[in-house]
Design a protein that fits this description.
Helix content is about 40%, strand content about 25%. The chain has helices spanning about 5-15, 20-25, 30-45, 60-85, 105-115, 130-135, 180-185, 200-210, 225-230, 280-285, and strands at about 50, 55, 90-95, 120-125, 140-145, 155-160, 160-170, 175-180, 190, 215-220, 235-240, 250-255, 265, 265-270.
């Protein structure tokens, strides 16, 4: 059994058919079928249940597929590391960020691109749960996420705490501060993760701790949509203050929340005990630099 056979096997699993797998591998179907047969003979077990043209993994096949993914990724990491040593910092860097943390990205990418112009950046947006899955699956190397999050698989770089503010249409009020009991009756637009516990629960729990029930009229995982709704005077949003650095706020009034401080924690995460490219390491180092935009 060699890496080529494992790649063939992995592609067959992902495509579910020999025909589709052969097409993806740019090879004829008979040689691919022969390779699968040889693999099963070598292992002395059946890897697929045949159901017409479709293939379903046996229990033995499921184990081999899981182990083969780890082996193939480890091999790819080795190749990447060797190339980096020989060629310097170049290639691709895949980064994810929740929209409420995107304000960390632009100034760092500008600095990074000046230092490492041969690196191509791929950005991925999503909520914290989705981005953590992308990191686990090696679709991206780094992600900036909002906590809480299950961090057992990750190394983390904590970021400064971020205070929440109330964002309302300017026509509604010119106040600079408001208390939670004043805010509770407003039509509120809150961030809500697609999966898991996040900022929504953090905000609602703060109201509950004061015996208040917030008037939540809309929940959405996208900060851009919430700000657009505020600008359309649909309601008022409670958002991390740094989020607003990435959006125009000309028609908005940003109000500090009195007495009951609501804060969010965020972090950069990457997969624990796995190879991290030089470009990813260099991008992480940009978080040790205090840029002017961080102070906004």
């Amino acid at each position: 059994m060699d890496l080529k056979q494992l790649r063939y096997f992995s592609t067959i699993v992902q495509e579910g058919q020999i025909t589709r797998a052969a097409k993806r591998l740019h090879m004829a179907q008979p040689p691919l079928s022969q390779q699968l047969k040889l693999l099963e003979q070598e292992l002395g077990t059946v890897l697929f249940d045949r159901n017409g043209k479709n293939l379903e993994l046996t229990e033995a096949g499921k184990i081999l597929y899981k182990k083969s993914q780890d082996l193939l990724k480890s091999f790819e990491d080795t190749v990447s590391e060797v190339k980096e040593v020989g060629e310097g910092i170049r290639g691709n860097l895949s980064i994810g960020s929740v929209k409420t943390c995107f304000s960390y990205i632009p100034v760092r990418l500008k600095y990074f691109r000046k230092q490492y112009p041969l690196v191509t950046i791929r950005l991925q947006e999503g909520d914290s749960s989705l981005l953590s899955t992308f990191v686990r699956n090696r679709d991206i190397e780094l992600a900036i996420v909002r906590l809480p999050l299950d961090l057992k698989d990750f190394s983390i770089l904590p970021l400064p705490k971020d205070r929440f503010v109330l964002v309302i249409p300017k026509k509604w009020s010119d106040k600079k501060t408001m208390k939670l009991n004043e805010i509770a009756d407003l039509p509120l637009l809150l961030l809500h993760r697609l999966k898991g516990v996040g900022l929504f629960e953090l905000v609602v729990d703060k109201f509950k701790s004061q015996g208040l029930v917030p008037n939540v009229v809309c929940q959405c995982p996208d900060a851009t949509m919430l700000i657009s709704l505020v600008q359309a005077e649909v309601g008022a949003a409670i958002l991390p203050k740094s989020t607003l650095n990435s959006f125009p706020t000309d028609n908005l009034n940003i109000i500090e929340i009195e007495e009951s401080k609501i804060e969010s924690e965020s972090a950069v995460i990457w997969l624990k005990d796995r190879y991290l490219s030089k470009s990813a390491i260099r991008f992480l180092e940009t978080f040790q630099i205090q840029f002017v935009e961080d102070a906004k």
